[in-house]
Design goal:
single chain, alpha/beta, Purple Acid Phosphatase, chain A, domain 2
Length: about 375
Amino acid sequence: MIRILHLADLHLGYLPPWKEAAESRRRERDMRLSAAVDWALAHGVDLVLIAGDLFETHRPPASLVNEVIRQLERLEGAGIPVVTLPGNHDEISYHDSVYRTEQGRWPGRLVTNPHMDRAVTLTCRGHEVSIYSLAYTSGVTRADRPLAHFPPPDGAGIHIALLHGSLDWGRERSLPIDGRALEAAGYHYAALGHIHRHEVRGRERPVVYAGIIDGKDFDDPGTGHYVVAEVDEQGAVVRREPADGVRPLVSVELDAGGYESLAQLEEDARGLVPEGAAVRLTLSGTPAYPVHPERVKAALAGRAFYLEVVDETRGLADELIEALAREPTVRGAFVQRMLERLRRAAPGEERTIRRALVRGLEAMGWEGPSG
């Protein structure tokens, strides 16, 4: 039995659109390979497979490339073979791809063949290990139909597929893979990349997406785990191990209509925003007071590593608008006009009109039902 650390989609070099926290977040994400190597050295890993998108782009900065090569050399120096497969973000197709310019000094085995084949044969703990793979190359690798031809796993030893693509569906910049054909091929383990969720198909001879460990954004928050496969000539057992130092990416939604004031909402939000996490706080509902995302963000400053406040409120509650419209004042006349616009609003206009109503009331000095 051999222990395989299955990595994929590290996307090193990715810079999130997080304003003041962007560069700090990029630096901490770029430490993931170093942390994974530390983990492999400490936990009896025999082989490391990188199933594509190690980098965010095909031309990462030289400093990042040098650090990645240094980390992979640590594995090779410790007797742990590493096999790297280019993905679609760091595609080998380009003449200046990192996998072309650095091929001569890339540690371990680098998959470069554009068609499915037995790409690597090596020995791990007395087992002959055959790895079947392809590096998608534009204009050479066919992607107009799902990859369905897989070389048979003939002979003794352990047979592993290493691929970067989409099982049973395809889209631009994705290698489509016939999932049934891959499962039927009979490899002891199939290590996949491209899909950022962790996913396992099959039991004795599983087809596995490792998933992205450190998420890129709030809709892609990451798994927070390493995937380890214990593989022998009968099949594989897949385990998930917690990865140290993963910053949580948390989405929180608050119904602003459930609070009497913005101050009350801010007080409740303090208890819902995890300290040190990156947080997207979405405000929804129909509040009876003006909502100021920047004020909410300022009130929670220092609690989160990064805080994004999204205002998805619908404006003021209908009952409050109608009450304001009944006032025999200039403010009441303004609300009456806006209420009439709401009644005649075309599809898609209501949200904009409600926001304009709130901003107009604020310009008149209104701060809420008591204002």
